[in-house]
Please model this.
Amino acid sequence: MDLCDEQLAHFAMASPSSGPDCASMEDLLANARRALVARHYSPRTITAYLSWIRRFLMSVEASGSRTLGREEVDAFLTRLAVEDEVSPSTQNQASSALLFLFRRVLEIPIDGKGDIVRAKRRERLPVVLDVEEVRRLLKELKGTKRLIAGLLYGSGLRLGEALRLRVQDIALGLGQITVREGKGGRDRTTMVPERLHEGLARQIDRREAIHEADLEAGAGWVFLSKALARSRPGLGRTLGEQYLFPSARVRVHSETGMRGRGPLHPSAMARAVKQAVDQAGLRKRATCHTLRHSFATHLLQSGHDIRTVQELLGHKNVRTTMVYTHVLNRPGLGVQSPLDRMR
Model:
């Protein structure tokens, strides 16, 4: 599908016209990737945005349209809500990806709002386990996966944050974990549970042994930003930069040709937790993220103030953290049931 910049300008409510400079779908995707990388979007966001942009362009191509306009965008987003029945967050992500395409890649201003059918937002409280349920769940996990689950519940990490931890991010002497470029690109610190000190120390020792073996085999490289790799060429082979929970296999990086280990894949941890939930006989639909929800709820339940919990979770807005007060039926105040006051 070849679409000219002048034709694409129809999205900004201008009349399309022919022009000499046209961009293919692959050109647009390549330009979008460069623009996303230049603005330091996370790898997961880059992958998601490029997927939505490709889906949209293929949808327009399939419809036989030779222009990209607000009508095509509105139709695409409406179809996601009506036919595909996607969640509101999924539809919003698709919308954000298309806005990025037109504003940042094509540099076309977007005026006004289209007639888009929005996916209905459902307000749902997070699933939370009680302390005994967490204990039963952790008991069913072994080795590295139990250690990771302990970090999700004991430190309030998201699964992706735990798997992207590097050796240098663990400060056992200070009892701190540094979470780098968490959600929203923000860094933060959280606690290391005392119960995990020994396990984390052993994991660091194991990681060092794996790294030394990889170096002897000509591997042991880890991906860094291009700027950091240029300024400190040997940094990617130091122990501190290695992922604390590495993948089982050494892989070749597609761009650099360097050999090293990425982080453990999230699906491996998700499967292990699902199996543990079944084995523990839990009746709740618990996932890895449920452990983070339980961390926040149990802290509030034990009397810690919501601002502290907000900082530990890395929430930008305290309103996001407030959902856990509703889980406790304590929206700001400790409310006692009248039944419990009866003598």
